[in-house]
Amino acid sequence: MSDLSLRNVRKVFSRTVAVRDLSLEIAAGELVVLVGPSGCGKSTTLRLIAGLEIPTAGEVLIDDKPVTRVPPKQRDVAMVFQSYALYPHMTARTNMAFPLRMHKTPKEEIDRRVTETSKLLGITPILDRKPSQLSGGEQQRVALARAIIRKPRIFLLDEPLSNLDAQRRASTRAELKALHKRLGITTIHVTHDQEEAMALADRIVVMHEGAIRQTGSPMEIYARPANRFVASFVGTPTMNLLDGRLESHEGRRSFVSASADGVQLALDHPRFDALGEVGGREVTLGIRAGDLSPTPSDAPHALALQIESIEPLGDRMDLRASRGNDSLIVRVPLGHSPNAGEQAKFRVDMDRVHLFEAGEFGKDLLNIAET
Ligand code: ATP
Fold first, then answer.
1. Which residue, of 10, 33, 257, 324, has the greatest Cβ tally within 10 A?
2. Atom of ligand 1 nearest to the CA of 192
């Protein structure tokens, strides 16, 4: 049974289609992350679930009951926004107690829940401070606590970590994940940060221009991006994507880049057999930076690349490399790096190469062929 269903939901603001015919089923207790570039419709989707927007078409169901026109207060959802929106004149304690007071919860019960929830979020020592006396991270915890204290059926988080510095963001997302495990509340989390999505989600929903481009576990989305858009959006560094065409000579397939003196790669791995006749077909070759590894000169499936520059990253290095007019990033462990200005050969892991149909939303031809 789904805790939450969106069925062909569409939202149009004057002439902007913010959400287009979006369908999604979310199971009880799931932590789903909506991720996508700015303006792709993530916040609008969340607001439609919360009841802060009414869809132009389609239905929202909670617990299999239609709630499309039910006001936010009756939906049993709690939402935390990017701007924590704490009441500035109230202490952390009174901010937390506020939603319970609104529901006319008895005072003893409020005190008990404030104590319990503030322990859970590690904010007991700051309960009597006002928001202006709290750091961004502390304000964010109080905002989470104020949402959690109601024990909502569904928890909606709209970029709750984006005001935090990088270190605090990483630690807070780990805490959020642990908190979700402990409480088991169905959670929908919105972010534009694909790393945050990968780290947090049970399931990722990748959105673009109001539509879902792929849903799946973080590893599915990373290892088997369904199309070129998802491939380019998920993963750090961004997947190397090279436009070109497939060629076939005497039964041997190869990829030939469209760039002058660019990458050429023999596609003689059994994975490519299912492609069938390929001559002249326009495609995009996708290779993750970590799927290129330094290799001796005569290895099969090796690319000779010119090393342009080297970025040390502590335990590994990113090499910016080129072949003719093609640019690639190669991620290598420490101690395996050639010098900038040199030529070096890198073996392509042919088990992990992607081939997309031409165009921004070109499908992964190999995954289609496999399924
Ligand atoms: P961001 O990451 O920048 O917050 P988002 O993915 O959450 O973006 P939305 O805020 O859902 O995107 O906006 C989707 C589209 O709908 C955008 O083009 C936005 O300008 C438009 N939009 C959102 N709310 C309104 C509104 N109230 N009136 C008119 N247009 C709106």
1. 33
2. 2
pLDDT digits (tens, 9 = 90+) for 5-49: 999 999 999 989 999 999 999 999 999 999 999 999 999 999 999
Give the global pTM. 0.90
For 289-328, b/e burial (b = at least 16 CB within 10 A) is bbbbbbbeeeeebbbebebeebeeeeebbbbbbbbeebeb
Distance CA 249, CA 354 (A): 21
For residue 45, how far is its CA from the centre of ligand 1 (angstroms)?
A: 10
Please, is 247 exposed, middle or buried when counting C-beta atoms within 10 Å of its C-beta (0-12, 13-18, 19+)?
Answer: middle
Residue 1 pLDDT more than 80? no
> Which segments of 93-179 are extended strands (E)?
154-158
Q: What is the mean pLDDT of residues 243-248?
A: 92
Span 286-309, pLDDT tens digits: 999 999 999 887 777 889 999 999
Mutation probe of ligand 1 site: the residue of 6, 10, 11, 13 with most atoms within 8 A of C-beta = 13
Closest atom of ligand 1 relative to the 207 alpha carbon: 6
CA distance 294 to 292: 7
Q: C-alpha angle 354/358/361, rounded to 5°?
A: 80
Contact between residue 39 and residue 189 where contact means Cβ atoms under 8 Å apart: no
Where b means 16+ CB within 10 Å and e means fewer, 190-211 reads: bbbbbebbbbbbbbbbbbbbbb
